[in-house]
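Honest question from a wet-lab person: if I give you the sequences of every part of a complex, can you actually get the arrangement of the whole thing, not just the pieces? Trying it with mine:
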Amino acid sequence: MRRSLALLLLSAALTPGVALGDTAALDVAAPFEIKSPDPVLSGDIFLKMDVMETLVNADANGGLLPGLSDVWTVSDNKLVWRFNIRQGVQFHDGSVLTADAAAMALNWSRTKEGILVRAPISGITAEAEEVVITLTEPFAALPAFLAEYRTGILAPAAYAADGSVTAVIGTGAFKVTRLEPPMTLEAGRFDAYWGGPAKIPAVRYTSVTRAETRALMAESGDAELVVNLDPASVTRLQAVEGLTVQAVSMPRVLLLKMNTGSPFFDTVAERQALSLAIDRAGLAQAVLRYPAAASQMFPPALGGWHDAALPPLVYDIEAAKAAFAASGWLPGVDGILEQDGQRFEVELLTYPDRPELPLTAAVLEQFFREVGIAVTINSTNSSEIPAKHAAGTLQLALLARNFGLVPDPVGTLMQDYAPTGDWGAMGWDNTEFTATVRKMAAEGGSDADKGALAATLHAEMPILPIAWYQQTAAISNTVKGIVIDPYERTFGLKSAEFAE
Amino acid sequence: MNTVLRALSFRLIQAGGVALVVGVMSFLMMQAMPGDMAYRIAAARYGYDLVSADLADAVRAELRLEAGPFAQFLRWMGDLAQLDMGRSLVSGQPVWQEIAHQLGASLQLAAAAMGLSMLIGPPLGIFAGLHPGGWFDRVLLVVAAGFRAVPQFLLGLVLIVVLAVQLRLLPAAGHGSLAHFVLPALTLALGLAAASARIARDAMAAVAASPHYAFARAKGLTEAQILRRHGLRNIAAPLVTYLGLQFVMLAEGVVVVETIFGWPGIGHALIHAVFHRDVPMVQGTALVMGLGFVLLNAVVDLIVRHIDPREVQA
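Yes, you can. This is the full assembly:
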């Protein structure tokens, strides 16, 4: 008797607490892990799952739209911004969104390593229905910063006394019903959503880090939306019935970072020669599997920044060899270039978080070998790039950089090229470029300013653009209205529906 | 009873030793890994788009990494002495809370795999052992060797492709419903069953060839009666002992299988914690796995004593 009771208890303890998966939920599978309920760490997921919202929104072209703030103004001296808070917005705990609540959320974000520490903010307060942000110097990019996920607004009840976040109590169309970092987020429809209730009763986010597994989940119908497909799976999934594979150009660029302070890359001629050695079209077709070779830094999706008149980057191996020879790099006995007894041997850093990076690095190694450069690939943790940048020991690095971190590329340019940055230029300092970027961050910029910046990057090549990314996703034909956003802010869940 | 107590106290001392060794070793190994810890933690927290020297410095200051590894080790051992495993350096959540959640998921999967393997392996092994040298015995040898040789990584993908993608019978990956158990548990169970079938087969063949088995037969008992009364208990002892060893295989397999199937378990967590240089998580996870292993072996000891009390009486 005792034994059977013990067995019963054991089996009860081991039976999973959740019943059979309900088919009414829309399943999303993506590689990004949920780290914590804090928007500063995992807000990108909460934003995309329509659980949390920001004061400012952005459209698919990076244009700013009203979000939880319906209208905003700036004072004549450009130092005081007023964001009027939308009326009639409720948090998931039933409390009302007020300027006080929004200011509190922003102030907590400011105490952490969020994006707001990068803006010249002196204070965030609430006055009546407005959040008032005062600056120490003009900063035109502020609304774009407030569209970034780390400034997501949660209810006051979501924060503990020390500012740590204990629950995701947002204002989005879906209310969190289960949050189990690092893998699972489940949310049900929030009927009091200010934009009108969603059509889908529930959504579920699953973090699946293996690209192969994600692709198989799309194929077997386990997930209605699978994002970030590996290139090989894209080709395969296109042939699967009941699935649509979508690819959208996005403001992310595959870049080759060079230490322009090293003797290998310290002249524009050397950097141009390296650029000539890269067969971008062949690489994009073979590795990325879509025609996305970069002809210049900014992809066409970045209106104003992309200049169709710039002469495209070309591949010419003989010209590359000639240019290196003209710079004093001549082949030694084993074919490796030499100059004053120094061999052209460099380390190429990259990271496997994005599956195409190590593959691309291997192809680049072959291209560079052709012109006589010996490359050692080091595929390691992504943080080695900023670490070696800071230590000054980085030589070459292959990376994927998002110019839409905030929906205004100036944010990324300021971090990376004005004058240098962990993920941008190294040892490159163009005072005019820096001044223009700073001016644009403070006052905003014209298309002429943007064009001038693009032209400078094109001429001086502090970094080599390799390819423009496309965001890929597999969408089940059982759902309608899913959006693949170039700025990675939304999946369109709040307006999506199941097809009849 | 006395011997049981002695065995338990031996296991208890062993557990203390394991805790100390695991704690020190995992700490030393984490220290020996290349790369700057502050940068790695910053990358884990904020992702590759945002990790920067500024964030690494902020992490360094927040976690007091400048104090050096020795001070960190003392802090951790001090906390542990008060039964506090600290907080994850990445998520900021208490380590114990994260492990409890993940360990539950892993134990469920491990139990399902173990149960499934017991349903598959020993019955086949017993049947083969009753007819040693027969065609079934020879086929089982080849099949078992095959399943034992195929890496779980490959087996898992093959099962997904066949059962989830082609036949659409089961979900490919994920966690939350009973259907999600089948594929990962089967992946683990097939490898385990292959081994336990061999053990059961050899034990059964030895018992069936023994004089007492022949005597039982001569007594006029039916084959089923002989198996029940004289066979099962005799093969249970080596089988259960072997199960204890299988937990090692299981712990190893869980790490791989959890990653393929997106299972939120302790193996998956350990891999990520190592990548992220989340020292308290690595130490906590390794500690729980080490102690769990000691506990399981203690349980196996007790069961074997119960099945085969001869040693105790002697």
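Two things worth pointing out. The CA atoms of residues 436 and 449 of chain A lie 7 Å apart. The first strand of chain A starts at residue 25 and ends at 30.
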